[in-house]
């Protein structure tokens, strides 16, 4: 993997004398106190401003501040006029616009497109404080306020809408957000590296229209950039006909091969060989771009949409990704290859910035639920190589794990202990996108640089992947010894197929880091949906459970796993949900909160939802069709089956079972899923009628809803 210069080189700081502001200013008054006549950069965000490393705007603001820029924040502005966007005056360099930590549509609507009335990122949990499609609205208001000031988009909402994408809420394919927002540039993924480069180059007098080559950015141009050679995406993966894969992929096959290295006869190796001087070969992905099918094509053709999505996901490794171009009318969206990952030194620098770790004082005593949830937790790494198709972390943070050093994490624990009001000695999480990927990286630099696998752990754990959990175990042990720390909990999801490779980790977890219940996400029990999610089978879950139960027992602790499942995921048939419900019943689980599949932009599973094709394999007009629960009633049935024990769900489950010819599962016996409708009498052969919870094993369920609520 290419390396990039450290982000924190002092000579790249535009003003080394300027001290950090107590908080980044949100008003003219604060600017005046700091002695500023203007801001260099103004960040506009859909979240409340919490000066904490878990809030994207604080990270970006503090990062730019560390480089010597004067940064102001406009948080949750009133968006119906330009006034609120002018409150800090005109920025000298640019507006940075984000919807916040969450996509504004996911924040505002449930998976069934119902309006939510709360917002965890807003003081007092108040809903309606940001507009739908906030990135577009904020950007347009910035342009109305100051037409000549460049607008740079960032954050998850912009990132996941960087090319044409299926939009679940309007049920259509929308063009790249850059067009609707009328912004000059979009930063995708973690923004530190590209944003610092953009800020520096603009401050040195370059026009934003000249910033063609910043990694991790998307721009609109009339034509492909000069000096780049184009490759049509159909050369890589032709819809309708499978072509041989050209050289860039040939290299991957070699590097990711599951074959063991060929053995070389040592005598042969010792023989003298002529020295061949070779000029450094240009790597096949350098200055190459791929032409994706145009917006106008993917909008109407689902095969081409699935094909474009597949190519897009294959070009996400910063080591070997090519640029992507997608025509929209007479212009193209140009995606430069992803930014290079942050080194441990850079990660430490980012997390070591002078955050106050509390909300901006202007919020007074108002509670911000998202802050309350994370104020005692610590992010130890970024990235995830699980590749779960319903998750957007890979599209945003990438597959390469970027870990902090132990020292940096321990410093943060001490800061929480010493600074954060209300800390009682319990760290609520030491985690990240996945709890147990800390410092677990690909062992082969060459393979890592050229790899295009969508997951390092599916269908099996790649033989290049390091599964030795020693760094995480050492970190937990050191963290427990910090003075004043009573307990360190692990609340991030544990990747259990990885964990069972190192039982010492499971032991450490069970012995010291579980507060009675451990959340775990098998997501389903059936191979159909699991294969579309890229999740491991239940065999690994059972192995993990065995180890977890064994070590919990050894420690004399009563601890339980809480499994999470997704209903209505692409690839799930009604029968799969029934089997899952029976598994839940057999294992005496009564789930409290359950989640229907939520198609977020650009996720692989969203492509399946929209196109009913499988982009995990080559896509053509005749390739595998994926069964998708799209209609309201079928989605409701799938969700209801996860809560088979809830009386409110029995009518829809009875109807579903009857339609499937499974009336044998309706009745009051142990082998039945739901009781018969007492008003209508018994149904189906062998139905003994529902005799109440006393006679069913509902009474023997391990957890009550109340217990679940308390623990989750
Ligand atoms: S460990 Fe991951 S990055 Fe490395 S070769 Fe295997 S799949 Fe590719």
Task: Describe what you observe in this structure.
The protein has 712 residues and is α/β, with parallel strands linked by helices. The chain has 4 domains: 1-221 and 330-371, Rossmann fold (3-Layer(aba) Sandwich), CATH 3.40.50; 223-255 and 284-329, no CATH class; 376-493, Transcription Regulator spoIIAA, CATH 3.30.750; 514-597 and 630-712, no CATH class. It is 32% helix and 12% strand. It contains 27 helices and 21 strands. The strands form 6 sheets. A 10-stranded mixed beta sheet has the order 2-1-3-4-7-8-12-11-10-9, with helices on both faces. The two termini are 40 Å apart. The structure holds iron/sulfur cluster. Iron/sulfur cluster binds at residues 256, 385, 442, 447-448, 451, 453, 456, 462, 464-465. The site of iron/sulfur cluster (SF4) has 11 residues, from helix 17.
Feature tags:
single chain, 712 residues, alpha/beta, Rossmann fold, Transcription Regulator spoIIAA, 4 domains, 10-stranded mixed β-sheet, 3-stranded parallel β-sheet, 27 helices, disordered C terminus, binds iron/sulfur cluster
